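Late entry, written up from scratch paper. The run itself happened at the end of the previous shift, but nothing got recorded in the book at the time, so transcribing now.
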Amino acid sequence: MNLPAKRISIPERLNTDADNVERGLVGLVLTIVELLRQLMERQAIRRMEDGVLTEEQIEELGNALMALEDNMTKLREHFGLEPEELNLDLGPLGPLLSHD
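Output as recorded:
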């Protein structure tokens, strides 16, 4: 027995409230920036452990990464986002962002 498909109008399916759209877009952008920050941090640690960075380069990288993390926190707070809201669930692969 085939049941007729229920038709859903667009307003019922999409939340087009400007504030929610802006918050969602900001959340997505901050998620990408946080992913890149974590990748850069891991790369910096690997290069530091391999001994390919000078003390000055290590200091500069550390300062840059701390400044980026501070700015991320400020942006998150400005838009009312919690850190866990920036993570994406990739199903069987687990979360996109690490929690370290």
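Residues 18-81 form one domain.
(Scratch paper discarded after transcription.)
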